Amino acid sequence: MPTFEELVAEGEAVPTEGWDFSWFTGRATEQRPSWGYAGLLAARMATAGAALDLQTGGGEVLASIPVAPPVLAATESWPPNLAIARRNLAKFGATVAHVGDTDDLPFPDGHFDLVVSRHPVAVRWDEVHRVLRPGGTYLSQAVGAGSVRELTDFLMGPRPVDPGRSPVRTAADAEAAGLEVVDLRQEALRVEFHDIAAVVHFLRKVIWIVPGFTAAAYRDRLLELHGFIERHGPFVAHSQRLLVEARRR
């Protein structure tokens, strides 16, 4: 059986580029939302004329759609992901722009009839409204308030939950920008970490769970968590997910 040090080193060595989570197979699990975002995305894209995917990561989710609209664009803020996204989306002839998560979007007013985003870091609702055509749709699966907070609190101590990611605030911000919220759902989903390597890699990849995380800085807490997993089995947390669909009036 690998030692604590070997597991930590393994978790630190796995590349973090892109949003491919296949490395976690057998080491961590996450329950999926009942609404099936990939299926909703595929259905919307099949009928769109021009679509935009915000904060696409490596484009892995968008690349899974069977039919792309005639005009397809994506944005991504992290430079290492840009080449991955451009490679994954080349089959659709999509353009991938380097855009910060809170920057203005480099597209004309009313350019898209569909804007989508999976797990956005931040949402510029005013910019979503601007680039949507009247009657156009915004579809997103977002990370809700207090996602995986059990892991955050274990490593950092109890932390307040950000109300900015609550369903109430999400709906209010969308409507303040001139969008009509037509669907808003929330689910808490079981997450299991089966070894400390999975915890280390997850925290390196999903950087907002423990901001500034390094294995060295949190070694003592990781060692305690390693002992817990060895004695009691998987560490259980819960991810929070929101499904948001809104239309430009």
Automatic annotation (TrEMBL):
GO terms for molecular function: S-adenosylmethionine-dependent methyltransferase activity. Keywords: Methyltransferase, Transferase. It holds the Pfam family Methyltransf_11. CDD domains: AdoMet_MTases. SUPFAM superfamilies: S-adenosyl-L-methionine-dependent methyltransferases. GO terms for biological process: methylation. Residues 52-138 form the Methyltransferase type domain. This is SAM-dependent methyltransferase. It comes from Saccharothrix syringae.
